[in-house]
Every structure is written in C-alpha cells, then in structure tokens.
Amino acid sequence: MKGTVVSTWLSTLTRTYGEEKVNKAKKKAGFKEDLIITPMTTIEDQKTKDLMKYLGQDVGKDPREIWHEMGIKNIETFSKWFPSYFSNRTLKNFLMLMDTVHLQLTEMLPGANPPRLRAKELNDNQIEMTYKSKRGMYDYFLGLLEGSSSFFKTPIEVEEIDRGTLDDGRDFLTIHISFEKSFRNKKKYLFSKILGLGFLKSIPAKMGLIGFISSFALISLPQFTAGWQVNLGGAAGLGIILTIISKILMSPIKAIDDELSKIEALNLDDENRLQTADDFEKLFEKLRQIKSKLREDILFLKGGTDDMHNFTEDFVELAEDMEEVSDSISTVVDEVAQGAQAQAQETEESAYIVNQNVEEIEKLAEAGQESRDNLENAVKNIRSSTQAVVDVNERISGVRSAFANVNQLGKQLSEKIETIMEIVDTVEEIAGQTNLLSLNASIEAARSSDNGRGFTVVAEEVRELAEESQQAVETIRKNLGEFTEHVETLSSSISEQFSNLEASNQALEEVAESSNSATNDIEAATDQVVEIVSSLNTETKKIREVIENFNNLAAIAQENSASSEEMSASVNSYSEKIKEMTGYIEQMEDLTENFRNNLKGYNV
Where are the chain's structural domains? Predict the structure, then answer.
C-alpha cells in the first residue's frame, strides 16, 4: 500500500476517532512513531489491517464497520487532496474515470498496486462496475460509493451482482449502479438514418441516392416533355430540394462544431452522443476517442499536480520548521561555544581544587595511619584491663564461695545452738522436777522418824543441786541466747556481704562482657579505619589520575571551544542555505499553484 492513500486514511481516522486513539492503534500495529509518509512510502497491507483491528478493539467496533465508515468519509479527504478529480464533475463521470486514475497511479508510483475499478455503461441511467483487488476491501469500496453519492449529491441504487475470487487470486465484486436521471445527451438525426437505408454509411452515397431518387421522380413526371420552361422549373425545384436535403444531411456538422468549440473551451466531458448511421457518427466517435485520450493525459497532469502541490505545501512547512530549528541550533551552538570556553576555565579551576583536596586527603590518610596505631595500642590496653577484670572476677567468685561456706556453717551453728537450747530446756525441766521431788522428800522426811533425817539432808542437797542446776541452765540459756544473737548477726552480715559479692560478681561479669564487646567493636573500627586508610590511599592514586584526566579535559575543552566556534560558523552558513532553499521551495509552490490553476481550465 502506497503512502498517498494511507495518508488520507490516517487523516480521515484522526478526524473521526481522534489523534490519541489512532496513534495508540498505530503503535500496536507496528507503525514507527517518527515515520514520515510520502507518496513513495510503502506500507505493508498487514499493518493497515492490524491498524483497523486494534482501533476497532479500542472504539468497540468491528473492523469491517470501520472500513465502511472510513470509505464514506475518505471521499471528503480525497476531495481536499485531489480536488482536480472532483471539481466540475458528475458522479457518473467520476466513477467512469476511477480505473484510469488508478492506472495512472500505477505508472506514477513504482510498486503501487491499486484495485481495478472497471466501469461500463449498460443503458442511459445504469453502469456496471467491477472491483478487483488482492486485498478484498469490499466494505471500503462500498463505503466510497456511498460517500461519492453524498459528495456529488446524486442518489444512486447499488445492486450486488456477483463476488468471488479470480483465477489469479484477486477478489472481485461486480455491482450495478442505477441513477435517477439519464446521464446521456443523445442527438438523433432520424432523416439521415432513414436515408442510409440501414446500409449506407457514406455521406456522398446518401447524396447520390437523393439525386437518383429526385432525378427519377423528375423524369417520370408528364410535364418533363412539356417544354424547356417546365424543365427549367423542375430543375430549379430539384436543386432546391437537393439543397434542403443536403442541409439536413449535413446538420450533424453543427454538433461536431459544438464539440470542437467545447474542446477549444477546454471542456473534455464525454456525455454527448451522435446517431446518424454515417460518417458523421464515425467522426464524432473518433472525436470522443481523442477527447478520452486528452482527458486521461490532462487528468494525469491534474492529479499529479494536486499531489505535488500538497506535498510541496508539506515541504514548505517542513522547510520553515527546519529554518526555525536551524536558527535554534545556531543559537544553541553559540551557547555551546561559550559554554565550552567556560567549561575549559572551570575544568582548570576544578583540577586545581581537586589537587588541593587530594593533598588534604593525603594528610587525612597519614592522620588515619596514626589513629590506627593509637587504636591498636588502645585495644591492647583494653584487652589487658579486660583480662585483669576477669581475674578479679574469678577471685571474687572464690571469696563468694568461701562466704557461702561460712554462711552455711553459721546456719548449721544456729541449728546446733537450737539443739543445745532444747537440751538446756530438758535439763531445766529435769532440775525443776528434781527440786519438786526434793521438796516432797523433805516433807516426807519431816514426817518420818529420826531415821529419815539423813534422807532429808540428802534431799536438801539434791534441792540445792537442782536450784544450782536451774541457775546454771539460766546462765547457759542466757549465754547461748547471746551467742545465738551474735551468730545470727554474723550470719546476717555474711548473707548481706554474700549478696554484695554476688552483685559485684555480676557487675564485674557485665563489665567484662561490655569490655570484651567494646574491644571487639574497637577492633572492628580499627579494621575499618585500616580499610578506610587503605581506600584513601587507593582513591588518592585514582584522584591523581582524575586530575591528569581533568588536565586532559581542559585541553579537550579548549579544542571543543575552537571546534564549537567553527561549527557555529558552519551552522550559520547552513541556516542561510536553508533560508535560501525555503525561498526556492516557495517559488516552486507558486509555480505549482500557477500550473494547477492553468489546468483548472480543463474540464475533464
């Protein structure tokens, strides 16, 4: 599919569905966004079919419906693109010329393969048209017919006769198109046809036949022998009759003269017919053939001029855009040249600044090296302190264990004292009972005889012993109570110190863990400092290389500045040439428009 018709399709679709939807469908169909379509551009048939398919999906229509609708509206686009095919023309004349137009496109655009639209007249108000194409775009073709009828304001009836596929693979559709009015303008000369007797086609033969009939009729009259006066009158009458008949026979010359006048007036339409059944009819038909040939040539020129005019207008717009772009480029190039100079200066300044930064970085690297050594010494000291803390913690753990044993022994001693207290209570109880028993014994001895006195003495001594035992028990109880209090106080103090030792031990463990963790963190930080110092040294070397590159860039920037100035001069020259070319294109547009206006005088 050539670019001319695709351009009209895209224009019609954009006018109908909007640029956004059409561009979206074009992208899906594989059209390049920056594609400039010219008459020589070839677009794959499948891309146009995909375009209709994706557009139909977007707008909710069947592709056949879109083809038909586009055919109706595309006539308006064609009329703007090729006005010569539409101006001063009837619908029938337009349809009869379409096959010729397509053949001309085939000759004008190498590789073009438009459909054939063969048309022939069937009668005064009906033509037959056959569409032949490998693309089978029936809906688009019928839409074009409907759009043509609307454009020329000529009602028609379309009857489908046949459709199918030819032996060469092309699809075809044959239709009959009926018009409300006759499109032929016939001029009939009945007398001339009668004189031809159905077989005489020559004017001289017809004249001879008239002379023969007139002479025979004159000779056959009785008055023929009546005298010379009568014969003279008969001859005069015969001459008049022959003159009248000759005038009638030669009257088609007026129609031929009218046709020649129309040709002189550049009117090459083909609606008149002459029916005389003689040489005049042949001459008129030959004149029609000459007009047909001229019409084809003029039509080719007018169509080509329309196409050239349209693309010249586009080219003028493009040239004007190029002129604006060229001016913009010239401005930008000037700015680039100035920027290149500034860049060269800034590059030198940047190189100087970077060099100073490198020196500072080298100092930082040296300081980092010293910091690394100090950190390593600090780590060693912290590790020694950590080990000392661990040792102290272990000793405290030993003391804690000893205190735990003492605390346990204190508890056991308290338990033993409680046991002794129980024994003392028992002794006290026994002493009390003994004292009571001695009292009873004394009473009984007093009641008895002198033999019981010795027993009384013993009982008294036992009582005294019991009282002494009771006193001793009290003393023991008192001392044991005090001892118990001292033991409990000692045990409580030991427990308290034991708790403090446990807390101290826990704190020392946490300190040891924190110290160890801090040591690990400091070691990691030391490693990072080492890496940073190493990286600084590496980056310093790289930055040294960057400085060298900066110096090279400064030199290149100087060269770019000089090149930019040269390019600026070249672009300015190029801009002037584009302006000059734009002037020539505008002259070409004027020339094309003049040529187009001259061709408008031809009514084909």
Answer: 1-81, 84-183, 188-326+593-600, 342-561
